[in-house]
Structure formats: C-alpha cells, structure tokens
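Hey L., structure's done. Input below.
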Amino acid sequence: MRVVFILTLAATAACAAPPGPAPNALSGTPVDLSHEYSDQAIFWPTAETFRLEKVADGVTPQGYYYAANNFAGAEHGGTHIDAPVHFAQGRWSVEQIPLEQLIGQASVIDVSAASATQPDYQVTVADLTAWEQTHGSLNDTIVLIRTDYSKRWPDAARYLGTAERGEAAVPKLHFPGVHPDTAKWLVANRRVKALGIDTASIDYGQSTQYETHRILYERNIPGLENLANLDRVPARGATLIALPMKIKGGSGAPLRAVALVPAS
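Output:
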C-alpha cells in the first residue's frame, strides 16, 4: 500500500510540474537595418522631407506628463519600402503585400569593394552567381545588396552624390544600384521575395528609366531602400523581418527592418 501511495505522489508531482520554456521562434541577435527619421534623414531630391511637429510636451494641468507630435513626409524617403505599384500599375500597394514576402531568409550580396571605387556601380548577374557558388540558391530568400553606402548617412553629398535639392539635382545623383539585366535574370531564373539595398534606390543614381524598378515590380517583387548595417548581417543564415507602415493604397511607406543573426 505504501509503494502504491509513493508512486501515486510521484505521478501527481510529474503531472503538476510546470511546463518548460517555449521554444523561441525569433532566435538570434537583432540587428536594426533602418535609419532613424529626423530632419537629417535623406530623401530623394524632389521629395518632401520628414517633418516632426511638436503638439505637446510637458506637464498637464492635471499634473501628469504628456507628449505628442504630428509627422509628415514623402513615402519614399529614409529607410522605406517600395510597393510594386510604385512603378507597375495594378500591382500591390503597401497594404496588399503578403507578410510572407517581407519575412524570410536574407541573402546578402557584398559589392562594397566595387562600390567604394565606382560610385555608378551596377550589380551584375556574375555577382549573384558567384555568391550562389559559395552560399547556395537565392530562391525563396530576400536579396540584400550591400554597398556600405549606409556608412555615409546622413551626409547627402557623399550618399547621393549631391546635397542639392530639386529637379536640377537629379542628374547629379551618383550611387550604386542593380543593373536591369540582373533584374531580368532574377525574375526569369529565381524566385525571390524582395530586393533590398543600402542606397537610395535599387536603380543606380544615373538611371533615367528606372528599369530595375519596373522589371521587379511588374512581378510583385517589393524593393527595400536606404537600408543600414548590412555589414553586420552574414551572407546567409539571418532572418529578415521588414515591416512597413500599413498605408492603404500606398506606393511606399516608412520601414522598420530587422535582421535576426544566429550565433556564429
């Protein structure tokens, strides 16, 4: 009888034991890939820049502290997303982009050496295939182009090629981007979720036809522009979470992008 009683207590204790910690689906060290929005944030020369209007900042008559602001600015400035409708009529606007397109394994293509000496560098098909020879297929990943231009932020003259504003500044833009032939190769040969870059545009600064935008967005492949800290993300293995402000009908939106980098 005593043995039965002890076994019963043991079984009861086992059943009452608290569950172990739940597995962490979001494992890894978070790396912020977004620049902050401020009056120093870089916007396209013809775009309305970011403004923060203070509404309240102080102790209320009721005795508690209260702060609030209004903000405004163009969709396409600072770290932001380009919805496909930005250059492809009838394609997804911001709120229509499936979350699955914005969360996934990051493939970081490092062209920083070429970009350091060639401000008009355009990423080639050879850059992508060389990466694949070492790291595997780009299929079903979010492709991120690392030029290290984010280290020039917020110096517009060094980041954009000019600090001038207005239409006259656009022909003076110089920064790396993705060659249209590379965009054509991607849509014809690979399935990628999105394409991001740490410059102001996925097309290089001297583009006038914005072909890379048009090719990718026609296929509902969003663009992520003005990313930061790609030098802290490994070539493969990190998870990217790139969530924009959910603007209904938006052609773009501010973006908070985070990479979860696994322990080495």
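Residues 43 and 77 are 4 Å apart (CA to CA). The two ends are 55 Å apart (CA to CA).

-- N.
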